[in-house]
Write a structure and sequence with these properties.
Layout lengths: L3 H10 L1 H8 L18 H8 L5 H7 L34 H6 L1 H20 L2 H16 L12 H21 L7 H20 L10 H16 L3 H16 L8 H4 L5 H21 L14 H13 L25 H8 L5 H4 L5 E2 L4 E2 H5 L6
Antiparallel strand pairs: 1-2
Helix pairs in contact: 1-11, 6-7, 6-8, 7-8, 7-9, 8-9, 8-10, 9-10, 10-11, 10-13, 11-13, 13-14, 13-15
Length: 375
């Protein structure tokens, strides 16, 4: 089934709230800058050339790139990945999953490292390296040989890998050194992977939880890259749906059902939502101020901050001690770099003291988004 038949009704269902909050009539929710990334690459490169912020300076010193990264071959045969958890949706994780996902993680690493170095240096060789690698995966029809029924974890992996490669590709794809035939093949492959991903029929839970948000990020990113307005709108519509699902306190109900991982999944769900908002901003749509059922995305972020400081706030949803806190001393999630750039001040100023990186969000978030000058 073609993806348009799956996405357009969703966009129409949430069109009214989306248009009101974003102050854009439905017919104006279109792609205004085709092939745009989540950042203005040349402008960012100019900013980085004069960076003084310590964590940005540190990130600029990183030498990881695509040219020297392992170039994983696309897996052959059916895409089957064991469940992440040994039983159910929480508890001990399955070590076999990490083994099965290794080539996908290596792909994400290579292209996201290449994208980051390209932003810093403008080196066309990095763009070509990313293109060559993705062209091989496209030629092999990778990420297409699976079904949700046989391997739900494979479906989830496609969400993350497609998010990663589409965001990284958006950074480099306009470089003139990339062969036109490669560009066409890669974009056609990404669109095909997106269509197939949406054609799966999951159980109701994952139609609404963080997985729906990751698929929406794919729809938004690939929609822009392929100039598919219906696909772009569907990503924005799912974003609006996510905001409208919040509990009164800003928690996301299906993430709160994840026992000891409730706060982890609150943060994990925010990652694709923030990136959708970043992509939309480049197209002139303000999703950060979009309000559904009295909420904006800021309420979900605020709950994460408050519950990290006071775990008792999660007890009404999950009695178990939480595995995640923003204030644990661990490196913060990379989406916070994008959030903090638009919402400066505490607690981000205390949390962000070193570069943050996430290959599923396109790579080095500090290179992409952090303020380059200290204030």
């Amino acid at each position: 089934m073609h993806l348009r038949y799956l996405t357009v009704p969703l966009a129409l269902s949430f069109g009214a709230g989306l248009c009101t909050a974003a102050k854009k009539p439905q017919n104006e929710l279109v792609i205004r800058i085709p092939a745009a990334s989540f950042l203005d690459v040349p402008a960012r490169r100019t900013e980085l050339a004069h960076a003084t912020t310590p964590r940005v300076v540190e990130a600029l010193s990183w030498k990881a790139d695509c040219l020297h990264a392992e170039q994983p071959a696309p897996p052959v045969g059916e895409m089957f990945i064991p469940h992440h958890y040994l039983s159910g949706s929480n508890g001990p994780v399955n070590p076999e999953e990490a083994k099965a996902t290794e080539p996908y993680r290596k792909l994400e690493q290579a292209v996201s490292q290449g994208a980051g170095r390209y932003v810093v240096t403008g080196d066309a060789a990095e763009a070509v390296c990313v293109a060559n690698l993705l062209a091989k995966w496209a030629a092999a029809d990778a990420l297409l040989d699976y079904t949700y029924r046989d391997s739900s974890q494979a479906w989830y992996q496609v969400e993350w890998t497609l998010s990663s490669v589409s965001l990284a590709w958006s950074v480099v794809e306009t470089d003139p050194a990339i062969a036109a035939a490669q560009r066409t093949a890669i974009l056609a492959w990404m669109h095909k992977v997106t269509e197939y991903m949406f054609a799966q029929d999951p159980h109701p839970g994952v139609r609404e939880n963080n997985h729906a948000y990751w698929r929406a990020l794919c729809a938004t990113s690939v929609g822009i890259l392929t100039s598919d307005d219906a696909l772009f709108k569907s990503g924005l519509a799912q974003y609006a749906r996510a905001i409208g699902q919040m509990n009164p306190d800003g928690s996301l109900p299906l993430e709160m059902a994840r026992h000891e991982n409730a706060l982890h999944y609150q943060s994990f769900a925010l990652a694709p939502l923030v990136m959708i908002a970043e992509l939309a901003a480049r197209q002139g749509v303000d999703l950060y101020s979009l309000k559904e059922n009295g909420h904006t995305i800021a309420d979900a972020v605020d709950f994460l901050v408050r519950a990290s400081a006071d775990p008792a706030l999660v007890k009404k949803y999950a009695s178990e001690p939480q595995t995640f806190s923003l204030f644990s001393g661990a490196k913060p999630p990379a989406w916070i770099e994008f959030w903090a750039a638009r919402h400066p001040g505490k607690p981000w100023s205390g949390l962000l003291n070193q570069p943050v990186y996430d290959s599923t969000l396109g790579g080095n978030a500090t290179i992409y988004a952090a303020p380059t000058q200290e204030k």
